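ok posting inputs for the 3,6-anhydro-alpha-L-galactopyranose job
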Amino acid sequence: MKQTKFIAVLSFVLLALAPTACKTQTQNEGGFPFILPKQKPDRQLSAAMERNYTNYMAPRPEDNELYSQFKYTELKGFDYNDHNGTISRRDPSKVIFENGKYYVWYTKRDTPTPPKGAALCNDTIPSSDWDLADIFYATSKDGFTWEEQGVAVPRPPKPQVGWRSVATTDILKWKGKFYLYYQGFMEASGKRGDDCPVAVSYADSPDGPWTPHSEIVIPNGGEGEWDQYSIHDPHPLVYKGKIYLYYKSDCDGEPNLVRMQGLATADNPLGPFAKHPLNPVINSGHETTLFPFKEGIAALVIKDGNEHFTVQYAKDGVNFEIAAITELMPTAGGPFIPDAFTDTKDGRGITWGISHLTNVTKWSENHAILLRFDCDLSQDVDDPGMKHLFNYYKPEFYYKHGLNKKQRERIQEQTEALNK
Ligand code: AAL
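and the output
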């Protein structure tokens, strides 16, 4: 009898309080505060405000350590044959600092003509901007003026991996030795697609000599798998005591390619590399630009996909979330990452690197150039000049990106339909 009475009283009390507990926040505490709370406020929030406090490292970009604008500087020291398309430098590696200077490796194409496409290419005419290329390197005392040192990894003789072209390299330092990973083309890019696996060469010094490891280290995926044709943009870091090599692949293609990024890990630089079961680990982007940040890995996700032009972050190096949205991001960025190979547990971030620009003049002279980018994606720098929210573009910049003939015809038809 007593228990029944207790339940009846408890039910009455709860019912009496129910309307108060279900009150909307505005009834409780007024509108959202004028001064943006630095911490998530204890009140009911919309999805957007919930996200603003949970997805980002700060509720406003100026305080978000993974938000930055990007500033660009023309490099000195590289010749491009008057930009006639016969010399191209692109897809730079990460920048490292050794022997008192900066080093960067990159794809260099030096051919008698600009690229002519797969149908017209031959042993001397390139199909694409990265066809018939070698891996070159340059050094610098200040990161602005560079001196090209020459070939690091030349194309090997047929039928070795990369005999047609070696391109899009990146550097790893592991136990005092140096490793260059690169795309090894065995046919001209564009014959079927941009198909290639990844190979590697190694040296005791960043100045070489480099010894090619004769086997493929990151193989193409199995038939029907997302990375069955191309393993692009190898980007090795040292993380959790292993080599974490991020890469990009092109898949789908109906109507356009989908580009996403995967991860392969190894305990030995020459493999075997194990592809992560959750691949692809980034659903957007193009060339790979990643760096240790705090306990995780951050990524510059550019150009392609739903989440293009974002900075992303994975606390575990695998499950990436959007950490910031920005603009004018470096294409094919190769950052200077002092702790890229230290297996750090507190990645400090980046402030500069080398990137590229393609189609510098016009498609008939297609070639790429290297340039320097600067940013504040660092725990050790506080540069408000890098945290502005937008760039101003002059009207002529907008007018250059105008309507095409088909779009104008559609608009005209829509207008005419209004007059019927
Ligand atoms: C680059 C990279 C890879 C592709 C081609 C050269 O942007 O994604 O290297 O194969 O384009």
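notes: The pocket of 3,6-anhydro-alpha-L-galactopyranose is lined by residues 91, 130, 167-168, 183, 194, 232-233, 248, 286-287, 332 (CB under 6 Å). Residues 17-23 have pLDDT under 50 and may be disordered.
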